[in-house]
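Subject line: Sequence and fold of a protein, written as structure tokens
Area: Proteins and the way their chains fold up in space.
Start of record: The labelled sequence and token lines come straight after this line.
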Amino acid sequence: MNFNLSEEQNMLKDSVARFVRDEYDFDSRRANAASELGFNPANWQMFAELGWLSIPFDEAHGGFGGGATEVMAVMEEMGKGLVVEPFVATVLMFGGLLNKSGNAALQDANIEKIIDGSLQGSFAYLERQSRFELADVKTQAKRDGADFVLNGEKTVVSNGMAANKVVVSARTSGEQCDEAGITLFLIDTDAPGVERTSYRLMDGQLVANIKLTDVRVAADHVLGDVDKGYTLIEAVVGDVIIALCAEAMGIMQKLNTTTIEYTKTRKQFGVAISSFQALQHRMVDMFMAGEQAKSILYRAVCAAESGAEDLPKNIAALKVMIGRNGKLIGDEAIQLHGGMGLTDELNVGHFVKRLMMINTTFGDADFQQQKFNRLTYSD
């Protein structure tokens, strides 16, 4: 099987790599993350001008028409730069829900604005009690005439403060943890009854808690079908997990490269520590962990591109491998850098923190291992 990228895909990958190399050094990234919005709006407009925001959208909406391979190429390079601009939150998550919603009116009204960079979005799905269970939803949406009225609170909403619009999962029927009975609503963040509180995660990402108090939403702002939003969530979350794992892949490659370069310059007993056989073995383990993760990433991307029946198993296995191998590589990178690896001034610790946050997004390695087991033994 040929895993080489096409000429067009390589051009896309190289354009992101060039941006990270020339425009996005570590100090710039720290300044962007510490800003009021949590990213640089000028960079976002540059992404729009370069066509990156159009990648996963259909050509009918002015998109590039790309798939999992194109997204992987972009996210891997963004991972190497620890890019904080909300490509995942706005384009892949928010935009992905719109793209697969079947609501033509909402697609026509919003997707072009995502592509030109004028619309920021997010997906509010987590609640205080839900942990990794996407179906654990207490937020209520009750019919009131032709509208719905939403009450509840969502937590850890990525890009929640910058978002102009947000997709919210709410329960329209069923019990708290039922997959059936969940409906997705598109709301404006400046609508009456919407209250946002911001805070930063350990990797510097700015997120928000969103409280909804009698928020009125028109019935034509439902994504997909009423009570059937969980199927849409699962489909888009699967795509986003692959993208996040591609980002993690870029981070692991960067940690491996950075660690090898450091051991060639750090001297102990008058020689470079890269000459110590014990440390060479550990760096080989890091390299092999990265190659294993890359192999299963390619498998998941191929399954996504072909619509394979075992795609959910591949995604779960990928998330397990990324979580566990990412921890191995991160731990070794910090140890081999010595005390410097823990300092805020060195990028190594920031890469490791981002790997830890990717691991916990949509279920950590242990959670995904259990999911993989269920999928395997139910066949």
The mean pLDDT is 95.
